[in-house]
């Protein structure tokens, strides 16, 4: 119990977040929307870590991990956005299925 | 409160005592800072200054890594409160990663695409160096936090490297695909790790709480968490089902980076996978681990599917880099055979195989880079008749391809032989039929790989070039490295015990 909210509720929310993110990654055509989906998935993981970390009073490993994950997610998205910007300059589109210079 | 003082004191002592074991990584970090400063102030005056610092710095680091063999004798040393662990095998992996980093830097010095990019090459060398630091930590990681950090460290820098050629459509496309696939894989891995943390209450995968926590919950929930975490690791070693990014990224990225990505992250990923599998299966109880049978079967199935997909898709390729990408997927399957065998001999077989694979693969990509410097093409069509014009390089290419196929008298044969025998040995002991099926598939795949590897010598020697064009002379530095690697491949094929004898832990 965390402030009266049972643990299951947090886990259900994070599972929904993760599935929504994965759905967005698989179904969206725009690279930016895919990135948003990825962010949702990462946030699901972070939420889990923070919630489980509340039970780990001595070492607080979960909270520390969550901090690192937030920073790394920001770094990853910054790099991905820069690359997508470059792709837009070359191809005039950000839809991955229209970016196909290489043939199978 | 008294309690805390003791804990703080001991952890400070632990941290201070650990620094000495991190000498290679610390010096890499210092060289990185030095490179940035040098690039800012003196790069205009002295040509190639950053590259020279990078190469010499990495050379010093290799010497320091060699020195670590004297530092640790037999038992592994946990450092920084169990965050990382330095063992003899991890020093070997680090050595292999740094050597391939050095070769790739020498390779990049003379690559025409990289020399002609508008950005210049100075950031490029610092990024390769940073990836090397990340890979070093990946090899030693013992904690879920450290695993996630190092994997992301490597991934984020690799995205930039793959997309380094601004203005080149293929490079940008490969960078975007790599970044999107990689970010999804690491997000999935993070979710899996958060579940593992919830189930076990610890991030330290070597502690007994980790195994006991996983074994006490239902197998279904434990496998979901483990599979999600493994997905991120499978992405790094390009194993099924996370192998879809490989062909596009390898084809589009600059050739030196393709060579680097096909070797170094795979080496570190395999080392990390072995650490993880060992941790999941380490238990003090007499009945053995509850996960042993299922991980063995999972790895065997993944190995079978990975090598079959890789080798059969390679048959239809007409671009040499794309062909090598599929061959890299096939090789991941072969290495996973060794991981599935999961034994002491298996681990040594994997290390030997990785050494041999790194030599032959970097060598083959160097030849591709050499040829693309000369006639600016990576299509198989354009290789026609080149064997007569560049005899020495073409012979070296044949040696690398024979080694990758796994035929005597090259090192590839010995490497594959060790992997196969480790798998058969594991079958004899454990009696898991999937391991036997895996070995059979391995043999079939070796035969299949012969067909596509030999398309390259076929074009080099037996087909005539359509048009006579005057060609520039190749690069001397490339020729020297290529011939050295080819000779070393042959040497290890004839005297494998020279290297195998050194690997004792």
TrEMBL record, chain A:
Q: What is its EC number?
A: 7.1.1.-
Query: What Pfam families does this protein map onto?
Result: Oxidored_q2
Q: Which UniProt keywords apply?
A: Cell membrane, Membrane, NAD, Oxidoreductase, Quinone, Translocase, Transmembrane, Transmembrane helix, Transport
GO MF, one example: NADH dehydrogenase (quinone) (non-electrogenic) activity
The UniProt similarity line reads:
Belongs to the complex I subunit 4L family.
Q: Which PANTHER family match?
A: NADH-UBIQUINONE OXIDOREDUCTASE CHAIN 4L (PTHR11434:SF16), NADH-UBIQUINONE OXIDOREDUCTASE SUBUNIT ND4L (PTHR11434)
The name this protein carries in UniProt is NADH-quinone oxidoreductase subunit K
Tell me the organism: Solitalea agri
Gene transcribed to yield this protein: nuoK
TrEMBL record, chain B:
Domain of life of the source: Bacteria
- The catalytic activity of this protein is classed by the Enzyme Commission as 7.1.1.-
Any one GO BP annotation for this protein: ATP synthesis coupled electron transport
Spell out the Pfam families in the cross-references: Proton_antipo_M
Transmembrane stretches, by residue range?
Answer: 20-42, 49-71, 91-109, 121-139, 145-166, 178-197, 209-235, 256-277, 297-316, 323-344, 350-371, 392-413, 433-454, 475-495
Where does this polypeptide localize? Cell membrane; Endomembrane system; Membrane
Question: Keyword Disulfide bond: yes or no?
Answer: no
**Keywords, comma-separated and alphabetical:** Cell membrane, Membrane, NAD, Quinone, Translocase, Transmembrane, Transmembrane helix, Transport
Q: Which GO terms describe its cellular component?
A: endomembrane system; plasma membrane
Job description of the protein: NDH-1 shuttles electrons from NADH, via FMN and iron-sulfur (Fe-S) centers, to quinones in the respiratory chain. The immediate electron acceptor for the enzyme in this species is believed to be a menaquinone. Couples the redox reaction to proton translocation (for every two electrons transferred, four hydrogen ions are translocated across the cytoplasmic membrane), and thus conserves the redox energy in a proton gradient.
- Describe, as the record does, how this protein assembles with itself and its partners: NDH-1 is composed of 14 different subunits. Subunits NuoA, H, J, K, L, M, N constitute the membrane sector of the complex.
Know the name of this protein? Answer: NADH-quinone oxidoreductase subunit N
Q: Which organism is it from?
A: Solitalea agri
Encoding gene, per UniProt annotation: nuoN
């Amino acid at each position: 119990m965390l402030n009266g909210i049972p643990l299951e509720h947090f886990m259900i929310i994070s599972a929904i977040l993760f599935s929504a993110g994965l759905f967005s990654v698989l179904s969206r055509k725009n690279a930016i929307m895919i990135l948003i989906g990825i962010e949702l998935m990462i946030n699901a993981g972070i939420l889990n870590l923070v919630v489980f970390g509340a039970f780990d009073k001595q070492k607080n490993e979960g909270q520390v991990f969550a901090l690192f994950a937030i920073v790394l997610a920001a770094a990853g998205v910054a790099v991905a956005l820069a690359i997508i910007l470059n792709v837009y300059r070359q191809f005039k589109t950000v839809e991955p299925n229209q970016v196909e210079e290489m043939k199978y | 409160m008294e309690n805390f003082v003791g804990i703080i004191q001991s952890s400070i002592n632990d941290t201070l005592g650990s620094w000495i074991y991190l000498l290679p990584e610390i010096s890499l970090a210092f060289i990185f800072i030095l490179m940035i400063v040098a690039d800012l102030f003196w790069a205009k005056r002295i040509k190639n200054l950053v590259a020279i610092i990078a190469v010499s710095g990495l050379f010093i680091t290799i010497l320091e890594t060699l020195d670590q063999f004297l530092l640790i004798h037999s038992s592994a040393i946990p450092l920084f409160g169990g965050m990382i662990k330095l063992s003899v095998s991890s020093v070997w992996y680090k050595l292999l990663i740094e050597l391939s980093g050095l070769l790739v830097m020498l390779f990049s010095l003379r690559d025409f695409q990289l020399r002609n990019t508008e950005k210049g090459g100075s950031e490029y060398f610092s990024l390769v160096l940073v990836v090397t630091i990340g890979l070093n930590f990946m090899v030693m990681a013992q904690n879920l936090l450290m695993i996630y950090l190092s994997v992301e460290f490597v991934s984020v820098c690799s995205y930039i490297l793959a997309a380094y050629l601004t203005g080149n459509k293929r490079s940008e496309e490969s960078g975007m695909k790599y970044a999107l696939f990689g970010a999804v894989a690491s997000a999935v891995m993070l979710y899996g790790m958060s579940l593992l943390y919830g189930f076990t209450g610890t991030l330290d995968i070597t502690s007994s709480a980790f195994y006991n926590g996983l074994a006490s919950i239902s197998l279904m929930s434990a496998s979901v968490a483990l599979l999600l975490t493994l997905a991120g690791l499978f992405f790094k070693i390009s194993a099924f089902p996370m192998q879809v990014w490989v062909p596009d990224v390898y084809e589009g990225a600059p050739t030196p980076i393709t060579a680097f990505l096909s070797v170094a992250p795979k080496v570190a990923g395999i080392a990390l996978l072995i650490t993880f599998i060992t941790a999941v299966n380490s238990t003090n109880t007499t009945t053995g681990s509850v996960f042993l049978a299922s991980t063995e079967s999972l790895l065997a199935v993944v190995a079978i599917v990975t090598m079959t997909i890789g080798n059969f898709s390679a048959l239809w390729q007409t671009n040499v880099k794309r062909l090598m990408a599929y061959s890299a997927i096939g090789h991941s399957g072969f290495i996973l055979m060794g991981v599935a065998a999961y034994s002491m001999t298996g681990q040594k077989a994997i290390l030997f195989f990785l050494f041999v694979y790194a030599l032959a693969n970097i060598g083959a990509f160097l030849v591709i880079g050499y040829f693309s410097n000369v006639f600016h093409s990576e299509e198989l069509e354009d290789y026609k008749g080149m064997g007569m014009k560049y005899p020495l390089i073409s012979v070296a290419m044949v040696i690398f391809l024979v080694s990758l196929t796994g035929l005597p008298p090259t090192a590839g044969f010995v490497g594959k032989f060790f992997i196969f025998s480790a798998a058969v040995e594991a079958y004899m002991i454990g009696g898991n039929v999937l391991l036997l099926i895996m070995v059979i598939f391995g043999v079939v795949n070796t035969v299949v790989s012969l067909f596509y590897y030999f398309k390259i010598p076929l074009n080099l020697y037996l087909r005539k070039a359509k048009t006579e064009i005057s060609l520039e002379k190749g690069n001397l530095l490339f020729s020297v490295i290529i011939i050295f690697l080819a000779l070393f491949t042959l040497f290890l094929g004839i005297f494998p015990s020279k290297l195998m004898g050194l690997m004792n832990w």
